[in-house]
Design brief:
With about 200 residues, this protein is of the alpha+beta class. It contains 6 helices and 8 strands. It has 2 domains: about 130 residues, Roll (Nuclear Transport Factor 2, Chain: A); about 45 residues.
Length: about 200
């Protein structure tokens, strides 16, 4: 059902069309359901998006990471005359880069299954706000891949540097050199242990 043919006074029809459009890759049709100044809060730490373009940008990011993504509506709970809480199950195979808020995930091939909750407000037949809740830790656990071997190598180097630092006998120049090298190893180890933060590359 296209957005211009649904009953604008039927919120359930609007919601059904909204998720069907995503599953059918009719992103433009789903975006057309939003008011031009709708407020979208999609991820913790991410800036608010506005209107149809904001939705299209978020949907595009999700589909880039999960080209076979699908949303299943598990439950719809009306909160008042305009607010609707929707419980969703999102599934898909992580075959593309995914950038959400401050998190960056390179393709892992993982088959993900996530529980989402979206709070939507409908006014005069249009979506005027969307707030999406997602368990970020669950997302991280399913998608982040830590290179344990490389991490152990970095930790071993740090241990050797720490031993050398302890044996400098007050040599300030040598201490500064070792501290700088330790800093490099610490940064590298942090990137390996937490590869999903912005600017890192998960393996």
């Amino acid at each position: 059902m296209r957005p211009d043919t649904i009953k604008r006074t039927d919120p359930m029809a609007i919601l059904s069309t909204y998720y069907a459009c995503f599953n059918e890759r009719r992103v433009a049709d789903a975006a057309a359901l939003f008011h031009h100044d709708a407020v979208l809060m999609q991820m913790p730490g991410a800036p608010r998006q506005r209107g149809p373009d904001g939705y299209a940008a978020f949907a595009g990011e999700w589909l880039q990471g999960f080209p076979d993504a699908r949303l299943t509506v598990d439950r719809v709970v009306p909160r008042d005359h305009a607010m609707y809480e929707v419980d969703l199950t999102a599934t898909g195979t992580h075959t593309g880069p995914l950038a959400l808020g401050g998190w960056r995930f390179q393709p892992t091939g993982a088959k993900a299954r996530l529980q989402l909750r979206e709070l939507l407000e409908i006014q005069d037949g249009q979506l005027v706000s969307s707030s999406l809740s997602i368990d970020v830790q669950d997302l991280v656990h399913q998608l982040a891949r830590v290179d344990v071997r490389a991490l152990l190598q970095r930790l071993s180097r740090m241990q050797r540097l720490a031993e050398q630092l302890g044996a400098t006998n007050g040599d300030a120049v040598r201490q500064r050199e070792l501290v700088d090298r330790l800093g490099i190893e610490l940064d590298a180890a942090r990137h390996l242990a937490r590869p999903y933060f912005g600017g890192n590359k998960s393996q």
